[in-house]
Amino acid sequence: MLDEFHSIKIEGEKCQARMACMHACPTQAIRVRNRKATILRDRCIDCGECVRVCPSHAIVPLTSSFSDLSKFAYTVAIPSPVFYSQFGKDVRPGAILNALKKAGFDDAYDVACASESVSIAIQEYLDSNESPRPLISPFCPAIVRLIQIRYPNLLENLIPIESPMEIAAREVKRLKMNELGLRENEIGVVYLTPCPAKTISVKHPPRKKHSFVDGMIAISEIYPTVLQLLARSDGGESVQDIRGLGLGWPILGGQVACLKAEDCLAIAGLTDVMRVLDDIENGKLRDIQYIECHSCPTACVGGSLTVENPYIARGRVLRMVEKFGSVPCQDREKIRDLYEKRFFSLVGSIAPSPVQPLDDDIAIAIQKMQQKQQTYEMLPKIDCGGCGAPTCMTFAEDVVKGQASIDECVFLAMKTFESISCELMETVLKHSRKIRANVEPGSHET
Amino acid sequence: MTGPYSQSFAIQGKNFFNAGKASTEIKTMLKDLGIDPAIVRRVAIATYEAEMNVVMYAEEATLIVEVTPRAIRILVNDRGPGISDINLAMQEGYSTATAEMREMGFGAGMGLPNIKRNSDDFKVSSTVGQGTKLEITVNIN
Question: What is the pTM of this model?
Answer without folding.
Answer: 0.90
